[in-house]
Amino acid sequence: MKKKILNIIKSKNKKKLVCLTAYSKPFAKILDKHCDIVLVGDSLATAMYGMKNTHDVSLDTMIKHGISVKSNLSNATCVVDMPANSYNSVKQAKKNAKLLFNKTKCDAVKIECNGKNYNIIKSIVGLGIPVMGHIGFTPQYFKKFKVQGVSKKNAFKLMEQARKNQEAGVFSIVLECINEPIAKQITEKLKIPTIGIGASIHCDGQILVTDDMLGLSGFYPKFVKKFANLNNIIELGIEKYKKAVLNRSFPNKKNIF
Ligand code: KIV
Q1: At 91, is the secondary structure helix, strand, or coil?
Q2: Ligand 1 atom closest to Cα of 47?
Q3: pLDDT digit string, tens, across residues 53-72
């Protein structure tokens, strides 16, 4: 196993993992200085492309953004999402995981769990491609948002999914929008690190969609804390530019040839 992936596993119970999403070069360059894991998430569907969910992102789109991000990272571990319907069978999953891994040169791929696809995870791990798991509210398989692990039955199901992901060979697992007590229990039971998004402080690491936490996407559910308000900053810059064009102070002597 590659050193980067081993280091992520070894961080369990030692250091909280700092993780964020990136879809492009400028963000990759900044995140590389601060993050353990940079995820090229299929959340780009909604955050970048304005789609209503992540169900229709193509493998080709993930490859293009994966190349842009990975080629601008030196330190952080780069994980790229396998998009919906790119891993419906073992044969298809192996073909597409190889393509995504080889073209982007990423360190790992991420697979959302539908409660059945453990053989698919196992087959990709078997190719020597590290896999990050993802349970809880898995947007590729849900139409409507719902916090997971509230009922006893659902909490038990999540515990089983976490255990089976680990058995299938994932090196870490995203817990998305999972009730605090069950997120804590899963984190304590697993040997691999859990990365929480809306899943409490007890997880081994945290991830957010960068466009959300920087106030860029306009999507701010309860689990997102806005650490900056980029929309306001961008708006101010655009207003200044507009004013300068209209009052003919731009371009000035310094900006012309
Ligand atoms: O697509 C994504 O950005 C994700 C994170 C929210 C974990 O899967």
Answers
A1: helix
A2: 3
A3: 999 999 999 999 999 999 99
